[in-house]
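Translate structure to sequence.
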């Protein structure tokens, strides 16, 4: 499927829609999820046009991949969730429940999170 340049994260990257920026570097933008489900809920996205984790893992450069994971570490420290722990989630495709077709990672923390089994429906 072709990348949809009108998806909401592409529009945030172009500055057409506002977002509460948490972190930015050459390859990565991170901002607060508009409908946060945990006290800290940050979305970390590559600046490149990748629809999903599958596409990112196949096509992104080593620098882009490294930047995403380095950014998560910085964000966890700077938002204060590093010490108590946090969860990183990537929803991929239809069965994964991905709603926005631009690869993103959810960084969630700030409270005790439920078990993954229950969250995934058993
Ligand atoms: P996913 O289901 O993994 O595709 O998650 C998409 C996430 O994007 C959801 O948690 C939404 O709340 C979030 N979201 C959608 N629009 C915006 C927006 N304009 N700013 C920040 N987060 C958004």
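Result:
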């Amino acid at each position: 499927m072709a990348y949809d340049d009108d998806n909401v994260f592409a529009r945030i990257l172009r500055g057409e829609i506002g977002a509460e920026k948490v972190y930015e570097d050459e390859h990565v933008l991170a901002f607060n999820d508009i409908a946060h489900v945990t006290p800290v809920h940050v979305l970390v996205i590559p600046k490149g046009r990748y629809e999903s984790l599958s596409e990112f893992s196949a096509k992104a450069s080593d620098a882009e991949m490294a930047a995403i994971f380095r950014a998560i570490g910085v964000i966890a420290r700077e938002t204060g969730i590093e010490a108590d722990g946090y969860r990183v989630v990537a929803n991929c495709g239809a069965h994964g429940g991905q709603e926005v077709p631009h690869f993103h990672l959810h960084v969630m923390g700030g409270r005790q999170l439920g078990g993954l089994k229950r969250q995934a429906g058993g």
